[in-house]
Amino acid sequence: MATAAQWIEGARPRTLPNAIAPVVAGTGAAAAIDGAVWWKALLALGVSLALIIGVNYANDYSDGIRGTDDERVGPLRLVGSGLASPGAVRGAAVASLAVGAVLGLILAVLSAPWLLLIGAVCLAGAWFYTGGSKPYGYSGFGEIAVFVFFGLVAVLGTQYVQVLRIDWAGVALAVGVGAFSSAVLVANNLRDIPTDSETGKTTLAVKLGDTRTRTVHLVLLVVPFVLTLALAVRTPWALAGLLALPLAVRANAPVRADRAGLELIPALRDSGLALLAWSVLSAVALGLGS
Questions:
Q1: How far apart are CA 20 and CA 287, in angstroms?
Q2: What are the pLDDT digits (tens) for 57-108?
Q3: Which of 14-23, 129-138, 144-153, 224-233 has the lowest mean pLDDT?
Q4: Which residues have CB under 8 Å from 169's CB, separation 6+?
Q5: DSSP 3-state assignment of 169?
Q6: Count of H-run helices and E-run strands, the chain
Q7: Which of 7, 45, 75, 228 is buried most, with the most CB atoms less than 10 Å from its CB?
Q8: Would the CA dihedral through 113, 117, 120, 122 be positive or negative?
Q9: What distance in Å separates the CA atoms of residue 50 and residue 57, rounded to the nearest whole number?
Q10: Those residues with Cβ within 8 angstroms of residue 136's Cβ, 6 or more apart along the chain or in another chain
């Protein structure tokens, strides 16, 4: 049986910046308009964390029962390694998604009930990423989903529930966060091209091939810093986002150096750290400049 530490590793803690960063960015965007509502920000953070953990366990379950993780290159997978039964991992996924649903329900009812529709779409997107008979993550749409759900929806949703409107600065932050989040997944799928090709998991990286996937990773890391220059129109403080540039350069280094397999894990880690740093710096900057 899996230990507590292995269950925590199975939740993929390195992906948590993808959940934290959009809430931080959305709260900064809200603060720049009318002032942040901290208890709503905390509820949004709970939703985001619960959803990403649920997605990770659901991915572990679905990939495990399909045999995709039988020859795993990256971090531990509970089902693929045989440390936990598929039913137990599926239960963990459902429980995490249920927590996110309850917190999201509270947030929507206290802010704008129509957001329940968005929440339902998010839950469906979380499960069918690798679940169901035709998972969209196996058809090259994973990066698009990450951009939409952990970029546009998460950032703008966080901003909206706090001030009941969005603005262009919020959109810019949402696109930047989405680009960074997609870069994390691109690095992951670049690493897994050999095994995914063998198991029929047709990710965007498999479709594009090794060379073009490395180019996509670079482009995604550049986009947020272009948006930083645009945000400087709102307030010069936004240029603080450029301080995250060294982390982005470091994140892309293994990709530029044609590293493969386990040597690409630092690219995932540092892409996530760059995402978090850029989001915090940009959010604080907008708050100060309001």
A1: 17
A2: 998 998 888 876 656 556 778 998 889 999 999 999 999 999 999 999 999 9
A3: 129-138
A4: 29, 32, 231, 234, 286
A5: helix
A6: 14, 0
A7: 228
A8: negative
A9: 11
A10: 128, 129, 142, 145
Contact call for residues 154 and 177 (beta carbons, < 8 A): yes
Q: Is the pLDDT of residue 14 over 90?
A: no
Question: Tokens 């530490």 label which residue?
Answer: 5
Report pTM. 0.92
> How far is it, in rounded angstroms, from Cα 161 to Cα 139?
33
Name residue, tokens 């060294």: 246
Residue with tokens 């329940």: 116
Single-letter residue type at 5: A
What is the spatial distance between Cα 27 and Cα 43, in angstroms, rounded to a whole number? 12
- CA-wise closest residue to 1 among 88, 96, 90: 88
For residue 199, give both structure tokens: 């198991």
Instruction: Please state, in angstroms and rounded to a whole number, the distance separating the CA atoms of residues 182 and 97.
Output: 21
CB-based contacts of 270: which residues, under 8 Å, 6+ apart?
247, 248, 250, 251
**Tokens standing for 29?**
């965007």
Residue that has been written with the tokens 């880690």 in this structure: 269
Q: For residue 32, give Cα distances in angstroms to 235, 282, 283.
A: 10, 11, 9
d(CA 268, CA 275): 11
Q: How far from each other are the two terminal CA atoms of the chain, in whole angstroms?
A: 52
In tens, the pLDDT along 105-114 reads 999 999 999 9
pLDDT attached to residue 131: 81
Query: In this structure, what token pair is assigned to residue 163?
Result: 């001030």
- Residue reference for tokens 């390195």: 14
